[in-house]
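User: Can you help me understand a structure? I only have the sequence.
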Amino acid sequence: MPLSETKKILVLYASQTGNSQQAATRIAEKIPSNLPGYEAALLSLDDFLEIEKAAWTQFVLICTSSYGVGQAPMGGYSFRRFCDYIVEHNCMDILNGVHFGLLGLGDSMYTTFFQNPTITNDAMHKAGATQIVKIGKADASKKQLQAIEEWTDNLWKPLKQAVESAPSMTEERLKELQMDTLNICEKAIPDFVNPLKENKLNAVPMNLMVGMPIVIALVAVVCYLLMQSENFASS
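Assistant: Let's start by predicting it. Here is the structure, written out as tokens:
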């Protein structure tokens, strides 16, 4: 894939204490200098689903941790449900063509500290996405900042190779990824509203609203003509 035109790489995060967000921010800031022609789109995993409407890019980087007993941290609740559904229902190949890297953060003082990053990584694999670099494991009990820096430094070479060698995804394929993701979210996430389906439903009332003044005007003209004809007949 040529690097001549500006393209976006999603950098997604979920963070309880802010460490994953900070790591994602640092990675996003380094993308333009390491991949000329590319820029980062930085947002939380849940905002990606709910605000960006699951608009995937071909290359995605994820920074996330665990919270509690292996649950998702803030900004990752909905995406975790999406991942759980993929794993539990064997949703294979829906993300074919996507290339991703994942950096997991946590503290090995807790036995489930890496559960959420692992499930997220497994779900991406199950869905057919291609892993660019080995999953990062940044342990707060074992020089976490150093692990983040090492993973980030080791990211750029394989990411650049993937960018240069992977066939470009068509807009049609990216749209398919989006629709498949939103369809799963409808099933996996309580009260999730598919924004693309909602727009289609809203289109009919909008069309009616646009056409209503024309109908009213035509009715008024017909009524006027009928009144004129009655007046003419009575005279």
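Now, to help you interpret it: The chain has seven helices and six strands. The beta strands are 7-14, 38-44, 59-65, 99-106, 130-131, 136-139. Let me know which part you'd like to focus on.
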